[in-house]
Amino acid sequence: MMIDRRRLLTSALTLGAMHAFPGLSYADARPLVFATFTGSWEEAHKAVLVPAFRKASGDAPVVLDPMLSVDQIAKVNAAKSNPPIDVMLHDPGPALVAIGQDLVEPFPVENSAYYKDLIPEAQDPNGPAPFFQVVGLTYNPDTVKTPPTSWADLWNPDYKGRVGITNLNSTLGTGWLVEVARMHGGSEANVDAGFKALEALKPNLAAVAANPGALATLYQQGQIDISPGNFNAIQILKARGVPVEFVAPKEGAIAFKTTIHIVKNSPNKELAFKLIEAALSPEVQTTLTEPPYLIVPTNAKVAMTGEIAKVLAKDTDELKKKFVFQDWKTINQQRASWIEKFNRDIKI
Amino acid sequence: MKSAAIAPGDVTRYGLGLAAPLALVFAVFFIAPLAQLFYLSLHNDAVATVWGLGQYVKFLTDPFSLSVLGATLLLGAEVTLLCLVLGYPIAWLHQRAGHWLQTVIILIVLLPLLTSVVVRTFAWIVILGRQGIINSTLQSLGLISTPLRMLYTQGGLVVALAQVQMPLMVLPLITAIGRIDTNLADASASLGAGHWRTFFRVILPLSMPGIIAGCTLTYAAAITAFITQSLVGGGQMLFMPMYLYQQASTLQNWPFAAAISIIFLVAVLAIVALFSTLGRRARINGDAT
Amino acid sequence: MAGGAEAKSLVLDRITHRFAGGTLAVSDINLDVKGGEIIALLGPSGCGKTTLLRIIAGFIGQSEGRVIIGKDVVDALPPNRRAVGIVFQNYALFPHLTISENVGYGLAARGVDKATRRGEAQRLLEMVQLGALGARLPRQLSGGQQQRVALARALAIKPSILLLDEPFAALDKNLRLDMQIEVKRLQRMAGITTLIVTHDQEEALSMADRVAVLSHGQLEQFGTPSEIYDNPQTLFVNTFVGTANRMKGTVIAAGPTGARVQLEAGGEIIGRAPKPLRASDKVVVCLRPEHLHFVSDESGFAGEIGMALPLGATVVHEIRMRDGQSIKISQARTGDTSLRDAGATVRIAPLGPGLATIFPE
User: Fold this and answer.
1) If contacts are CB pairs under 8 Å, which of residues 61-120 in chain A contact chain B?
2) For residue B158, which of B88, B229, B90 has the smallest C-alpha distance?
3) Best mutation site among C80, C82, C100, C124 for testing chain B: the one with the most B CBs within 10 Å?
4) What's this model's pTM, rounded to 2 decimal places?
5) How far is C238 from chain B (nearest CA, A)?
6) Tens of pLDDT along A310-334?
7) CATH topology of domain B74-234
8) Do residues A66 and A192 both lie within one domain?
């Protein structure tokens, strides 16, 4: 009873103070809200990033609120002046949308201890990339005896009716199409060559998944034997005993930046900065390279070991050589029309 | 004093008062978002600043968009038809069965409702897959040498949706068929009609209310079944829910997504209206000619 | 239809039926119905009369025995090929069809063309005095009208046998009598062999040429209404059809067709015995109330008036006998009939020696 009354009093006072001084920070009013992604991302962030942030911030309260990029953007858009989220996490496409809609606070680069250590591709003043997502070739070693080495292997007549891809709703599907276009002389600005190649792939196609997650099911059901796939998703599947392997194609594995942003008008800007700093720190990134997370680091000072070293790259130099980065600003300009074309043309 | 306050004349007002919370919920959580959706759809640009009917014009003049709408409505028709053809005999059997068997049938019909749509859909992936139950059975019987492609096909999707939505068809049918006086079938037989004539001239017209209710529910559920459509149908089959999702989620084109929703809603309402009109006519003009 | 094909006979030959659970529904029923006769199957609910009707119609396949219509054993025929017309208790009109379509339904099933069907339906509707209502739906008609439609519909197929299942049960009393007369008129006109299933004895006695009384799946008696009423063969028939006073007693002396009985209520009585009896058998004596009268001498048996009921054309007195049983006595009401006061001591006696019927207890 006493406690309740005391709490009530505190709340009333806080509210009163906030009304009296509108400029007063909301920092005391609610904890830092970090919108991560669902699933393995949330687990990794809960286990590694949050403890590191707590340590760095003197146990500041933080809440993980995992949701899709699109929901993050919608929520912030709905309350631009008083956003319910302080830190957003985005794939390259949505990141550009969020920046374009002016929902992102510039990252105070000059205050950052780690920003300069990031590999150049991960540096972005609108929000640095604490992690990479890597897309390469995935295959079932039980049925595909010769490991594939190139994207071109998907067109191998031996895999007639065994190839899976995803549609362009996903970053994976879109990025992969751009890469195929590049192989055939196209670019981020012109993927016609990619569509032409897709047309030629049709006899080999067993399935066009509606999202990358569905690829996992298709492997488990033996519906497909080879496909483009996300390095981390495949590690999870492999850990569950599904026979799948990941290889970086010789053309280079496609690397997407997963960028982290301070939300514009966030009442917790200081804490948001501290969280991002923690995400960029070599300590956190090193821990996250280890199993079961196997997240590809962006901080050049982080040594790569284990499965990442074996399958992807041993160090930043090799990573730069073996990874392909794409210009999502250009991609986003035409993505709608590509999706439309994909909708129309890719029927199996 | 208290009892005097509730005069007989107040009964109606009292009843409306009870309905008010529901009406409020309906207004706040259905009418208002719908109005907002409509408002959003009346903008020509993706960030909703320029007024206009551009999104509707874009959809209605684009053969591809219209084909997505057509494919979705057709999918609904196929699923509904399959549900009706498979569900009617079940409902019929239920009516003729003994008490014990009736309980079993109801349980079997209701069971899918007790599991989530996602679980039911994944079960269908296991059944239809390359190494799924059907393919492995056919292969072990030596009927086929290479597995049939059933997952990610229209046929597979129709079957999966039909199973997932079956209770929505069977339950209204059971109710409607159960209401038919069993003497009518006997009367028809005694007048010289065979089983088929009795069925088509008496039982079928009289089960029309159940058929309409079942078809309406199944149809609406089948065409909006985003999860099953995308998991069993795959990414290359585009239906309205996925189209809508694509525009809103991937492309952030909310006004176009809103226009798609409104057009979809209108199309579905038109189909439902057609169902009930047809049904009513069938009931009125049930001429035994 | 009048003057059509010769009316067919109906024979039920040793019909026995057991339900799925093994319950005996009807047992060893023999009925021989002449062409053109009206037969009533009379009995309380659960006696098996409806089962018998459904067996004749072909809805139930009997466990044993044969159904013979005319010269044909019809057991192998499904209901739609038996040419048996039925009027159901609830009429079972097709609610979604017009009256005219209902009546024409059987003809449509026989492939009769639409114009002929319309004409025939109209003719039948006029016969049942509903010529103007052909375009209506069943729910727009009254109960009596619906029944006429049901009858017209059944007659439209020119059935060899017409079955009526409790046809008047849903009608109020005044309408019932009208309809009974109407049905009998139509039956005579069409000359169709007809079975009426009923639990209403008055209906059975007034309408039927012969009555089959059923109880617990057994045929108790099959005879003309007079035989049933005046010469009941079993205790059940005697008590179910008409009213009967039951008095317990012991046989003093027995002949081949009659016996003398010492009543527990005091006094002796002589009566007919449908089944042979022996001296000292315990028996039940049935006496109809109208077969008793008050006597002023020392004959008959003594009792005390319990209650007097003036029932219009008759007056009924309830008499408490010495052994506590009560007995009803009914008199035609003439100018000088007076009600007796309760508690008055009276003596009553049968009107004649053969009017009591004696059954083994």
Assistant:
1) 68, 70, 73, 93, 97, 101
2) B229
3) C80
4) 0.77
5) 34
6) 888 888 788 888 889 899 989 988 9
7) MetI-like fold (1.10.3720)
8) no
